[in-house]
Specification:
about 120 residues; mainly alpha; 3-stranded antiparallel sheet; 5 helices; 3 strands
Length: about 120
């Protein structure tokens, strides 16, 4: 940066704290963190799950053994929420990637159990 600063006038504004809706910060040990808390909270409000309980895993262990219980009627909502979860898993929440991948395989014709899987992630 000092070489470039010799050629053109540069104003250092400090470390970037937010970029494309992603909050970025470092702890005292210089570990770098990405966080999308605002997007997650908006997604929870969109799904009317702002007061939901937390769980320790992104997908229920027995998910594949849950019996099929009919098709979910609002495919567009399912796909919209699934897309938001895909975005979150690629940027700052990699722990949900496997669960989102499994649920995305049913995006064309989701069942009610797949909606329960999305609610579990949320």
């Amino acid at each position: 940066m000092s070489t470039l600063g010799a050629e053109v006038k540069i104003k250092h504004l400090g470390e970037r704290q937010r970029y494309l809706g992603v909050d970025m910060f470092r702890d005292p040990e210089c570990n770098f963190y990405l966080c999308q808390t605002d997007k997650i909270e908006k997604l929870l409000q969109k799904c009317k799950m702002g007061d939901c309980k937390t769980v320790s895993t992104p997908m229920a262990v027995e998910f594949n053994r849950i019996p099929e219980d009919g098709k979910f009627s609002n495919v567009e909502l399912y796909q919209s929420v699934l897309g938001s979860l895909m975005n979150l898993s690629s940027w700052s929440w990699p722990g949900i990637s496997a669960a989102v991948n499994i649920l995305s395989q049913h995006a064309a014709e989701p069942l009610n159990k797949h909606l329960k899987g999305i609610k579990h992630i949320l």
